[in-house]
Structures are given as structure tokens and as C-alpha cells.
């Protein structure tokens, strides 16, 4: 009976995710190729007419699959618009999160797009083009009357998606502080996808979940009252698209997204997905704050 219950609840969550996804229709903004910006694209990429983008799904609302299996989301709509400015056709390749940056380094993908937090450590491997500002937001079960404090979570089970900032930086630092204070470490529970982390929280297998703020907000919305925020948004930092170190593609993409910011299409895309809060006015190359 336990197995039946787990599959039943999980199926319910997946169905709700699909229903919620259907409430937001991807937007195709009106923008044309800008020759001066397109000229910055490396010749070997321009000749192919394609922009090969490595992406990890599901990570709603930024990148995930719709009911037909097509990769959609806020990041996808914005990348589609950037590609138009550059005169290129984006080709999305599904990949494991932790293989995307190495694949960009190797030239398998020209761009890595998976809600990457632009950090100083990652900038040693690739260059980043910033396009959004996201913080960290925790969530807990709505039926838990004890408010969880992310700064006092010693001994709790906390779900994260593997190799994200929350997995590699945030939770380890908080756990080390717990141990240094003579308290139990945080039990970090890793999942390959964000959906699995959400399901684990709903099923009570973990006490809380930590993810980027737009992702947590979307998870709370689509689970219709089963989850609630745990503490405020904190540690805001830029999202960035990863490109090969030293490639002129970084400048081309930075100019392209800045063009969209200056001409209204960027704001239009953010508003369509309800992500105006983290929208930025200026795109940078390597804008890490830590």
C-alpha cells in the first residue's frame, strides 16, 4: 500500500505541474536580426546558422518540457529572442546539469542554459552572460506549523537538486556552521531533478527544500497549497548563460540581451512568466558577486 500511495501522490504532483504549465503559454516576441550585433558571432558558429544550447530539465518555470515533450520556459523564450537578434536558430540539447559546463568547454554546446548562478568559481571554467537576478528561497510543507528558519536548520533534512548552487555552496556552508557551533549537521538530500525534490517534500521525506527563488515560487504555486515559503529570499545573485572562455559569443549574446532590455522585449517575456521581480536593466559578462 505504501508503494501505491507514493506513486499516486507523485502522479498527482506531475499532473498538477502539467496543468500549471498549460496556464502559461510561451511567448514569441517580435524582434528581427540586428546586423551590427550578429557580426560579433564567431564565424564558425555564424556559418552553421545554429546555436547549440545544452539544457537540463525539468526546472520550472525556467526550462522544462510541455505536454508534447517540447522544451519550453522563461529561459527558452529569452534565448529564442536572443537568437533572433543574432540571426541564428537555437537547437536545444537535453543534458545532465553537471555535464553542461564541461560540454561548453569542450565545444559540444555553444551555450549552457540551465538557470546557472554566475559565481566566481564557475567563471574560472566558462564566461557568463547575465540576464536575471535570483536569490535562494526555501519551502516547507504547508501543514507544518513550525516555521523553518534557513539560518537555523541544523539537523533538518533539506532537499536540493544535485550540483546546483544550493547543493555545492549554500547548504554545505550552513551545515559547516552548525557543526562548528556544536549542533547536528544539515542532512542534505540530493535529487537529480527539481521535481523529485518537490515530490520528496510533499511526501514528507524531507523537512524543507532549497532552490532558486523563481523555482521555489513556481513549485509553491503549482502544488496548490501543499507547500509554503520558509523564510525570505536571500543571497541574490545573477543568472548567466555559460559560453566558452574567451569566445566572442559572450559579447554577441550580451549585446543581444541588452538590445532586448532596451527595446521592451525582455520585459515582455519576464511579465509573461510572472518573473518581473528578478528582471535586470543591464546585462554583464561575468557579473558574479561571490
From TrEMBL:
Coiled coil: none annotated. The keyword Signal applies. Belongs to the bacterial solute-binding protein 3 family. Keywords: Signal. Its main location: other. Residues 50-277 form the Solute-binding protein family 3/N-terminal domain. This is ABC transporter substrate-binding protein. Pfam families: SBP_bac_3 (PF00497). It comes from the Bacteria. One of its GO terms (cellular component) is cell envelope. PANTHER family: ARGININE-BINDING EXTRACELLULAR PROTEIN ARTP (PTHR35936:SF17), MEMBRANE-BOUND LYTIC MUREIN TRANSGLYCOSYLASE F (PTHR35936). It is found in: Cell envelope. The keyword 4Fe-4S does not apply. CDD domains: PBP2_MidA_like.
Amino acid at each position: 500500500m505504501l508503494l501505491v500511495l507514493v506513486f499516486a501522490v507523485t502522479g498527482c504532483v506531475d499532473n498538477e505541474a502539467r496543468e500549471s504549465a498549460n496556464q502559461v503559454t510561451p511567448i514569441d516576441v517580435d524582434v528581427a536580426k540586428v546586423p551590427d550585433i550578429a557580426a560579433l558571432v564567431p564565424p564558425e558558429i555564424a556559418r552553421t546558422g545554429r546555436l547549440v544550447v545544452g539544457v537540463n530539465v525539468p526546472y520550472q518555470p525556467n526550462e522544462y518540457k510541455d505536454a508534447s515533450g517540447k522544451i519550453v520556459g522563461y529561459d527558452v523564450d529569452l534565448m529564442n529572442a536572443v537568437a533572433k537578434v543574432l540571426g541564428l536558430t537555437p537547437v536545444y540539447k537535453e543534458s545532465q546539469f553537471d555535464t553542461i559546463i564541461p560540454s561548453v568547454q569542450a565545444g559540444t554546446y555553444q551555450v549552457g542554459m540551465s538557470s546557472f548562478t554566475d559565481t566566481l568559481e564557475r567563471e574560472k571554467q566558462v564566461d557568463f552572460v547575465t540576464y536575471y537576478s535570483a536569490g535562494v528561497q526555501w519551502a516547507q510543507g504547508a501543514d507544518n506549523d513550525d516555521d523553518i528558519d534557513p539560518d537555523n536548520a541544523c539537523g533538518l533534512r533539506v532537499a536540493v537538486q544535485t550540483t546546483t548552487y544550493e547543493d555545492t555552496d549554500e547548504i554545505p556552508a550552513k551545515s559547516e556552521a552548525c557543526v562548528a557551533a556544536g549542533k547536528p549537521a544539515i542532512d542534505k538530500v540530493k535529487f537529480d531533478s527539481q521535481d523529485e525534490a518537490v515530490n520528496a517534500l510533499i511526501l514528507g521525506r524531507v523537512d524543507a527544500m532549497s532552490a532558486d527563488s523563481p523555482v521555489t515560487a513556481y513549485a509553491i504555486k503549482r502544488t496548490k497549497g501543499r507547500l509554503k515559503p520558509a523564510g525570505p529570499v536571500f543571497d541574490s545573485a545573477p543568472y548567466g548563460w555559460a559560453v566558452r572562455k574567451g569566445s566572442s559569443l559572450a559579447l554577441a549574446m550580451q549585446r543581444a540581451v541588452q538590445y532586448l532590455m532596451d527595446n521592451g522585449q525582455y520585459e515582455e517575456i519576464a511579465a509573461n512568466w510572472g518573473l518581473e521581480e528578478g528582471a535586470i536593466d543591464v546585462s554583464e559578462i561575468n557579473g558574479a558577486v561571490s
